[in-house]
Amino acid sequence: MTEILLEWKDKGIEQQGDQNGGTPENEDRRTPEMFLDCPVERESYRNTLLACKKDLEETTDQYGSTPLHFAASLLSGRPLVQVLLHSNPIQLYQPNSEGWYPIHVAAYTGAEQTVCYFIRKHPEIACLRDSKGRSFLHIAVEWNRWNIVAYACRSPWLARILNMQDNDGNTAMHIAVQHGKKYIFCVLLRNRTVNINILNNKGQTPLDISQSNIPTGFSYLWNPEKMILLALTLCNASTGGQVGHFHDRYMPQQKQAGEEKESEKLTNTTQTLGIASVLVATVTFGVILAIPGGYKADDHFNGGTPTLAGRYTFDAFIMANTIAFICSVLSTINLMFSGMHMVGLRLRFGHFVICLFLAFSSVTSLGAAFALGMFLVLAPVARWTAIAICAMMMIASLCFYADLLNGASVARAQYVRRGNWNVDDILAMCDNLRLGSHFNEIWTQMSHQMHRTRVTES
């Protein structure tokens, strides 16, 4: 747009000055960039520009892009799009050198308002295809523009493009699965109009593509590729017709990882996890030497024992610290077995899974012990500070469930599509219950301590 303004400034104003025999007396000497910074001046300047230079609407650059292509690429370019489209609607049907129409450009940049405006004014452009046969929905899925995909899925008048295939026979669902776009996959899966059993030109369904994305060997359970495969399987998605022939000729070969590579990967992972496990064991052991509240003097009754012993909160603190220590020690032992090359690979992997569970439990128990210890020493003198610390620890614990919450989004998509509860929904509910149960004891101790404080004050 700045280039157009400069061209108009250099040619239009100078020609006007030459016709008048010199430079106009009231010539506005502001630069085009100054006009672009002011919305009112920008609107007036656009109208003046289009009135004086009608041929600019049909001007294209070296890539075949029209002014409407550039306007559609702006996230907040709807006012400019309205002016250009009202002046010359033909630009909406002019592709650039890559076959992209303005609606493809808007979908690429995620300009939802521009896409909505295009379709509302000219509904037929929703089916426009680029040189590869892709609609604007294909572009939005490939470039992870979930807002454009959500708009297409919630608009009944766009149902005809949800299963549209490109030159390779791929639908939007194929592309989402191929690139592992889990959030976009969930948006498409929630729409029952989307067909999950369409074959592309290679005879692949989305389920076949999802299976080809899973590497052999061990991998993380909550990876997007595994979540997508599980969701398609639970939705009864089908594979290609001739499965054996398909695997031999068409399906991309899965990543073959030999035992040596898997063993090296497992060894490197155990080294990283071992540092955290040993650190937790060291911290929990050091707590016994520096107990909250200290120890009684030797000349007192029960000298050398913890000062706060006998309180319910203190007992809970000791138990949480003990559980953290035991879990970290057992996790370290399992890590030793999972890192030994003399142990079979399957057995090593089993020890590694156990180690992950124990390490997770030890860190969680350590967090609970910290919150209980702070509450134990602060509650008598700064009750609300102690409560705030416990609340912050509970909020911080949500980071352990980031991947589990991602699984819940897939479960919700399956529920909308199938209309019944399935395994993923039950797992999501169990994870939420486990999240609440981890720090439920903290709230119990807080309530008990606050009740005792009120009784003492009364």
UniProtKB/TrEMBL annotation:
<feature type="repeat" description="ANK">
    <location>
        <begin position="168"/>
        <end position="201"/>
    </location>
</feature>
<protein>
    <recommendedName>
        <fullName>PGG domain-containing protein</fullName>
    </recommendedName>
</protein>
<feature type="region of interest" description="Disordered">
    <location>
        <begin position="10"/>
        <end position="32"/>
    </location>
</feature>
<feature type="transmembrane region" description="Helical">
    <location>
        <begin position="349"/>
        <end position="378"/>
    </location>
</feature>
<keyword id="KW-1133">Transmembrane helix</keyword>
<dbReference type="InterPro" id="IPR036770">
    <property type="entry name" value="Ankyrin_rpt-contain_sf"/>
</dbReference>
<dbReference type="InterPro" id="IPR026961">
    <property type="entry name" value="PGG_dom"/>
</dbReference>
<keyword id="KW-0472">Membrane</keyword>
<dbReference type="Pfam" id="PF13962">
    <property type="entry name" value="PGG"/>
</dbReference>
<feature type="transmembrane region" description="Helical">
    <location>
        <begin position="384"/>
        <end position="404"/>
    </location>
</feature>
<keyword id="KW-0040">ANK repeat</keyword>
<dbReference type="Pfam" id="PF12796">
    <property type="entry name" value="Ank_2"/>
</dbReference>
<feature type="domain" description="PGG">
    <location>
        <begin position="264"/>
        <end position="377"/>
    </location>
</feature>
<dbReference type="Pfam" id="PF13857">
    <property type="entry name" value="Ank_5"/>
</dbReference>
<keyword id="KW-0677">Repeat</keyword>
<feature type="transmembrane region" description="Helical">
    <location>
        <begin position="312"/>
        <end position="337"/>
    </location>
</feature>
<feature type="transmembrane region" description="Helical">
    <location>
        <begin position="273"/>
        <end position="292"/>
    </location>
</feature>
<dbReference type="InterPro" id="IPR002110">
    <property type="entry name" value="Ankyrin_rpt"/>
</dbReference>
<dbReference type="GO" id="GO:0005886">
    <property type="term" value="C:plasma membrane"/>
</dbReference>
<keyword id="KW-0812">Transmembrane</keyword>
